[in-house]
Amino acid sequence: MYQPSLFLLAEKRQSVKDFFSNATFRIDECDVGLGVFANRDIQPGEAILAFGGPVIDFDETKRRGPWECMPIQFGRNQYYDTQPPGVFVNHSCEPNAGIRDDRELVALRPIRPGEEVRFDYSTTMEEQSFTMRCLCGAPKCRQVVADFSTLPPEVQARYIGERIVMSFILHKTGPGRMPAPPAGVISEAPVCR
């Protein structure tokens, strides 16, 4: 079974928190493990961090077992094997940040010091394979994190308008074409990342 070196490092949480924190954000404890928190006011549209890592394919994500949710899909069969600090950004159904240009995490609204930075994982997913139970706690929580095509039309439209949907999803869907929703089941893992 795949055991990312990140998790070996995470055994020493304090060193992880210190090493990957900077003037804009810090890694700290949250309700689902570790998360990214603002160290200062972050303005709408301001870049927070860039996602990246080695590029892997769908089959490799499946070999990850319980860690299959860690990579971020940015192409039909392309995923970033997400590296710190990005791997610590958690999901929310009511996000304060989103990914633009397939890599850059930007603020969608003012983010205050001490506030956790979260994006909607569904804006990066369209594989008809993976779902997970959502524990984000947002008032409008959807209860399940799934592909972009499963989002309500008004949420899809808002995210497209905010330019926080991965380009491969936009190219796949195009005007008047929306991918079929997944037939998968909810993952046993209650939350990932």
Helicity level: 10-25%
CATH class: Mainly Beta
The overall pLDDT, averaged over residues, is 85
Radius of gyration: 16 Å
Low-pLDDT segments: 1-5, 175-193
Give the strand tally: 12
β-sheet strand percentage: 15-25%
CATH topology: Beta-clip-like
Q: Give me the strand/helix succession.
A: HHEEEEHEEEEEEEEHH
Distance between the termini: 18 Å
Largest sheet entry? 4 strands, mixed
Named at the architecture level, the CATH assignment is Beta Complex
Give the full name of the CATH homologous superfamily.
SET domain
Please tell me what the overall shape is. globular
Structural class: alpha+beta
What number of domains? 1
Count of helical regions: 5
- Largest sheet strand order: 1-2-10-7
What would you note in describing this structure?
The protein is of the alpha+beta class. 19% of the residues lie in helices and 22% in strands. The protein has 5 helices and 12 strands. It has helices spanning 5-10, 13-20, 58-63, 153-161, 167-173; strands at 25-30, 33-38, 47-50, 55-56, 72-75, 78-80, 90-91, 97-100, 104-107, 116-119, 132-133, 144-145. The protein has a 4-stranded mixed beta sheet. Strand 5 (72-75) and strand 6 form a beta hairpin. It is globular. Mean pLDDT is 85; it is low at 1-5 and 175-193.
